[in-house]
Automatic annotation (TrEMBL):
Coiled coil: none annotated. GO terms for cellular component: outer membrane-bounded periplasmic space. PANTHER family: CARBOXY-TERMINAL PROCESSING PROTEASE CTPA (PTHR32060:SF30), TAIL-SPECIFIC PROTEASE (PTHR32060). Transmembrane segments: none annotated. GO terms for molecular function: endopeptidase activity; serine-type peptidase activity. The lineage of its organism: Bacteria, Pseudomonadati, Bacteroidota, Flavobacteriia, Flavobacteriales. This is Peptidase. It comes from Algibacter lectus. Residues 136-351 form the Tail specific protease domain.
Length: 376
């Protein structure tokens, strides 16, 4: 695709990249985000249009197609003179009703454990063995913000331990992050030695929790709850916030040194990342890269190696435009740093899928890992 109307697609992409921020000098997040949301960015800039002239290129041929918007037809009820026969009511036996109830309960339980995503009809967490035996396992995590993660990880690493699995592939591609509690729990199964998961979070005030909940976008119920709970929250903030080198730091439970969990995995570990891996997925990746625990394959993460502003957020509505601004209130970091600053976790083996790979359904990053495993 070369042009939309009279605008070069390359110019549109450059413009869309300026619509959002990226961590430091990172480019992979911008490429991925524009790639996934190009039509959304175009619509927000141009609005509804009746037709669109598109210039395409195929091999050495350049041609133009005009795409027209077709209004959705309203559904009309059919007024048949003869009413359809009512469907017979099937009466279920008690045993069948009980069976259906058990099946529905098990379905809800599975949805909670794996984190069902209704929009895409996918699970957040997925576990499987690759190949004929259990020597290589694959865990795909689409986010750290959905479902009962503890049960999933406990079951998964128990399977790895029982099967004596030698290789584990952790797929964090297109994982936009989520709960620190979850990545801390996951890392406890991947660590080989005692570890400190995150450094104390830098804040700009001792009572750091109040701005997140007491602002001009907070509901009345939230403000009432915060008013009632404020003495307890204030004590927690004051006890856990310390001043060091002229800066204030809030100490999370994850800042303490901990031992790996029982049945922790100690075999070979590969991690798949791309430009859409950021926030919490970048934080756990920093740990795994800094400790040389894993081989990284794919693209540089969209999230920075040296941390991000997250943890707590304040959503403030501007008085004139009514636009809402979401501001992070904590500097969240792993206890590791890299120089120069401003980059994500870079892969040991850099592989970027091509258009041909996408069209043919190939996964060159995963294929490289499986090839590397077969050599060893």
């Amino acid at each position: 695709m070369l042009k939309l109307e009279n605008e070069n697609v390359s110019d549109l992409i450059t413009g869309f990249k300026s619509r959002f921020a990226s961590d430091g000098f990172n480019q992979t997040l911008q490429n991925r985000l524009v790639g996934r949301n190009f039509s959304t960015f175009y619509f927000k800039e141009k609005g509804f249009i009746d037709s669109l002239q598109v210039q395409f290129k195929l091999n050495d041929s350049v041609f133009i197609k005009t795409l027209k918007r077709i209004d959705k037809k309203e559904k009309t009820k059919k007024n048949d003179s003869i009413a359809p026969e009512p469907k017979p009511i099937i009466k279920l036996s008690k045993a069948k009703k009980k069976q259906n109830r058990i099946a529905e309960r098990n379905k809800r339980k599975k949805h909670r454990e794996l984190g069902f995503i209704a929009k895409s009809k996918e699970y957040t967490r997925n576990f499987s063995f690759i190949g004929k035996d259990s020597a290589t396992a694959y865990i795909k995590i689409r986010g750290f913000n959905n479902g009962n993660y503890r049960k999933f990880y406990k079951k998964s690493f128990k399977k790895l331990d029982s099967a004596k699995t030698k290789n584990l592939v952790l797929d964090l591609r297109d994982n936009g992050g989520g709960r620190i509690a979850e990545i801390n729990y996951l890392y406890s199964y991947l660590a080989k030695t005692k570890y400190q998961f995150m450094a104390p979070a830098e804040v700009n005030r001792r009572l750091s929790f109040f701005p997140a909940f007491m602002n001009n976008t907070s509901s009345v119920a939230t403000k009432i709850f915060m008013g009632i709970a404020s003495p307890f929250i204030a004590v927690d903030n004051l006890l856990k916030t310390k001043k060091q080198d002229g800066k204030l730091y809030y100490r999370f439970p994850y800042s303490k040194e901990k031992e790996p969990r029982d049945q922790n995995y100690t075999g070979n570990l590969y991690v798949l990342t791309n430009g859409n891996s950021f926030s919490a997925s970048a934080l756990i990746s920093t740990h795994l890269k800094a400790t040389k625990r894993a081989v990284f394959v794919g693209e540089e993460t969209g999230g920075a190696y040296n941390g991000c502003v997250a943890g707590l957020y304040k959503i403030y509505q501007l008085p004139e435009t009514k636009l809402k601004i979401r501001m992070g209130l904590m500097q969240i970091e792993a206890p590791f740093k890299q120089n120069p600053d401003g980059f994500g976790i870079k892969p040991n083996v850099e592989i970027t899928p091509t258009i041909s790979d996408r069209l043919s359904g190939k996964d060159p990053e995963l294929e490289w890992i499986l090839s590397d495993i077969s050599k060893n």
